[in-house]
Amino acid sequence: VQLQAFGGGLVQAGGSLRLSCAASGRTFSMYTVGWFRQTPGKEREFVAGISWSGGGNTYYADSVKGRFTISRDNAKNTVYLQMNSLKFEDTAVYYCAADPPGPNDVLVRYDEYDYWGQGTQVTVSS
After folding, report:
1. What is the pLDDT of residue 54?
2. Which of 21, 19, 49, 41 is nearest to 121 (CA)?
3. Which pLDDT tens digit goes with each residue over 31-86?
4. DSSP string, 10-66
5. 23, 78 in Cβ contact below 8 A?
6. 26: closest CA among 61, 77, 65?
7. How far is CA 85 from CA 6, 17, 43, 48, 52, in A?
8. Which residue from 49, 74, 103, 116 has the highest number of Cβ atoms inside 10 Å of its Cβ?
9. Using CA atoms, how far apart are residues 108 and 97, in angstroms rounded to an integer?
């Protein structure tokens, strides 16, 4: 599966952005998808994930709970990350990742994902 992330940009603190992760492949609905972010000198950090099972269970890093929402539109082979109440510390390159169905559909480590899209830069001005 090939992933393409887009939707990043420059936004003021308190503002919103919606990132999209578009995928090729007819079985994308069966993949667990995650969003990660990375800043220079730091490891890639888990942000949010949506499983393939259970109608798409969602889970979030504590730092974004209540502000970010992950969702998927299987008809469009796309996963979204709605980011509200953005903070300066949300500034990063955001990546989407996908993993085929397996016994565990709660994946929060970057090395658990097989497929990655290119990053999209999100910059929040204070």
Report:
1. 67
2. 19
3. 999 999 999 999 999 999 999 876 789 999 999 999 999 999 988 999 999 999 99
4. EEETT--EEEEEEE-STTGGGSEEEEEEE-TTS--EEEEEE-SSTTT-EEE-TTTTT
5. yes
6. 77
7. 19, 9, 24, 16, 27
8. 49
9. 11
